[in-house]
Amino acid sequence: MPVTSVTTDTEALTLTVVADFPVPVERLWGAFADPRKLERFWGPPGYPATFDRYELRPGGIAHYWMTSPEGERFYGRWDFSEIEEPDRIVVLDSFADAEGEIDTSVPSGRMTLLFESTATGSRLTAVSESPTLEALEQVLAMGQAEGMREAFGQLDVVLAELREYALGKGTVTEVLDDTHVRITRAFEAPRHLLWRAHTEPELMRKWLLGPGGWEMTACENDFVVGGSYRNAWAPVGDTVGEPFGFDGENLVIDPERRIVTTERMTGAPFPANVNDLSFDEDGGITLLTLIISFPDVAQRDMVLATGMTTGMEASYQRLESEILASV
Q1: Which CATH architecture describes the domain 3-160?
Q2: Whether 315 contacts 203, CB under 8 Å
Q3: Which residue of 39, 77, 86, 107 could cross-link 29, Cys pair, CB 3.0 to 4.6 Å?
Q4: Hey, is 200 helix, strand or coil?
């Protein structure tokens, strides 16, 4: 993880997060200067940000929201006071409403982002200063420290060249904690094609099959928020196995960017998982990131033990050879 320290100073009324990255400081600055890059990490996993206004200049305003896996939006606003490229950004950091007006029920704070070169790359120091001890305690109780740690923990992927970082590595599975798993897979294809391949049933039937010897017998989706879906598979020929399927509900649909669904094995007596699938494109490479939230560690381990990653990689290889290569 790039984050090296998270400290709270109740006398100075500050929360300070420090993170180191193996890239030049100009690239680190660029991740904050480009709202499309900023969207890829500003917000902890499962709560990605969307910036609809971003004016990186003294007196400028940024307005954004974070969308939860359940589709709930949390709004924020930055009022830029100091910009010193590529060294320093200072903002008034506030909660906001959907129109971008400051929410005065939560105290605003001063956030300073410092960018500096190091012997191995660059360092980001983020200092959030609250107006009172009560205000500091309030934002800490709301999870600001952990949220910033998790947000900056995603920045290394944004700073990396996706071609070098992920392309050719296949499907990678990481256990984040007892109930969360992150799966990534990179493709040399534009995002809109990957989106089509995951949302158009006639394309899904051609590649979403896992290991050889299976066919997709159902691919139904009322593709709106609140709509339900059902997918099912059955063995063909001499393949050994029992038919199975998954069903669930669409929670979030952000076209060409994110799909969040519940997922339950059809007929199984287990609670549903939540699947959070995002699509990020950079330099002609699209990175799929799937964050799975499990109800408990036992269900997490049970699912991982099925060889899920192997089946996903077989499907993704078929997607590359039979869908993306022909479009």
Answers
A1: 2-Layer Sandwich (3.30)
A2: no
A3: 86
A4: coil
Question: 223: which 2 tokens?
Answer: 């593709």
Q: Do domains 3-160 and 163-326 have the same CATH topology?
A: yes
What fold characterizes domain 163-326?
Alpha-D-Glucose-1,6-Bisphosphate; Chain A, domain 4 (3.30.530)
Domain range annotation of the chain: 3-160, 163-326
Q: Which residues, at least 6 apart from 292, have a Cβ–Cβ distance to it below 8 Å? A: 180, 181, 182, 183, 273, 274, 275, 276, 300, 303
pLDDT, mean of each 10-residue run, the chain (327 residues): 92 96 94 93 88 97 94 95 97 96 93 96 96 93 90 86 80 90 93 96 94 92 97 92 94 94 92 94 90 93 90 94 83
Q: What is the pLDDT of residue 282?
A: 85
Residue type, 325: A
What pTM did the predictor assign?
0.81
